[in-house]
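Narrative summary of target 7.
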Amino acid sequence: MSKKHVFIRNIDCGADQLFLIAGPCVIEEESLMMRTAERLKKISASLELPLVFKSSFSKDNRSSLEYYQGPGLEAGLRMLEKIKREFDLPILTDIHEPGQAAAAAMVADIIQIPAFLSRQTDLLVAAARTGAVVNIKKGQFLAPNDVRHAIAKVTAAGNQRVLVTERGVSFGYNNLVVDVRAFPMLRELGYPVVFDVTHSLQLPGAGDGVTSGLAQYIEPLASAGVAAGVDAIFMEVHEDPARARSDAANALRLDHLEPLIRKLQRIDAASRERAIPDAAAVSSGVRA
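Modeled conformation, tokenized:
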């Protein structure tokens, strides 16, 4: 199936160029958010890498009430709007209930559907009706092909601007794994494919009421996803992950981002050289 060209401003998400979605997991104090956006903007310019800034105004799926959930809808959107205006960056943020969609779309170029909510019809339809790009995170409980049903809910509401994100699948208790076969399977659905590397390295609930993680595997996992042909890499980044107020255990240090992206760009260039012109024909025993 040919892939749709979904545009976010001047970023063609279906083009043969890797792009990056990055930022702190949750909106923190303004000074940190502005420093992070400025650093990301400079890295993007240096690498000629299209960039979308992401952060959540609320983490509604925190394991425990003891942990910071974010500033909330109004304050969070004000912060994201300031970043958008001052750094001229497209914005991604997630929503958790249909009533948040219209307000989020006033600021966000991409409305994200959290993985746990990827089957919620009212949420998907509300996001679709805003006209914003809708990024559907594949639920940890879904097979790749099952995402077609979530896509259909968005497109039936009149919105063809869809991204699909892989973020690992539940594998026993407190663990996620990434099946690299999922990337070509998702690509066959016809929409740009994003790989959320850092969330795929979570150990959900393994930190006694907080999500733990395995940030030491960011580089090999990202490399594998890019080699498999994803359109974008999604990463939680923080200047000091140990102090991050969400996903501290699986965030990437901001000063490690540029060398990693340089490596991923080289892998991306190599991955676009098709060794098997018609994989379907080869798998069926038909010679090209």
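Residues 30-47 form the longest helix (18 residues).
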